[in-house]
Every structure is written in C-alpha cells, then in structure tokens.
Amino acid sequence: IMEDIVKIRNSIQIKQRNNSNIDEELFQLGMFLVQSNKQHEVKEGVGYLKDLYFRLGAQREYEYFLASGYFALGRYVEALKLLDNLLKREPNNYQAKNLRGRVEERLKEDDLTGMAIVAGMVVAGATVGLALARLLKK
Length: 138
Prior knowledge:
Distance between the termini: 68 Å
Number of helices: 6
Helix content: over 70%
Low-confidence stretches: none
C-alpha cells in the first residue's frame, strides 16, 4: 500500500504542475489512507474524501470510504449518517450494510463499556461515601 501511496502522491505533484484535475488521485489517496493503521494517515484520508464529498456531491465511493475513515477514527455517528444516506439510494449495497453492522456493533460495545465505567464510579462513590459516614459517626 505504501508504494501505491507514493505513486499517487507523485502523480498529484505532476498534475498540479500541469494545472490538471487531481480529483481521481485525491480519491485514490484518500481511499488508501483511511485503511491505514496510523491515525494521522486516516485523518489525512478523511480530509481528502470529505473535500471531494462536499465539492463533488454524495457519490457512493466517497460516502463509503469516508464512512470507513470515520469508523476507524471512532466517529461512529458521522459514519452512520453517511451509510444511511448511501443505503437510502442503494438499499442492497452489501459493503455499506456490512460496515453499518460493524459500526452498530462498536456503538453497542462502547455503550456497554461506558455504562460499566459509570456503574463502577457509582459503586466507588458509594463506598467512599459510606466510609466517610462511618468515620464521621465515630
């Protein structure tokens, strides 16, 4: 993938010098970057895809890969909005359905983790409160 990214970046530089359109290269670069394991690269890819999405409109590829990037960054609500928009137009889009299921699963996991943390804090707070009450009674 790194070799592809280098080739695309070189192509962008050449096209920019010739004042040529680089939208296709930006899409390819964004698509590769949102699949990276490095957060800064995912963010960079999201930036390119977001720019294309807002400049050129809601196209399947932009929505799907932008949603993938948002998912990778933990921005689940934004990912769901894009996927829902895509699925309204293409209700049988397997990739979008699959990614939407993964996003929903992660949201459930995060909700359960968040609830466990809050419950733990409540128990800890109650324990401290009881200990203080006992100390004050003495």
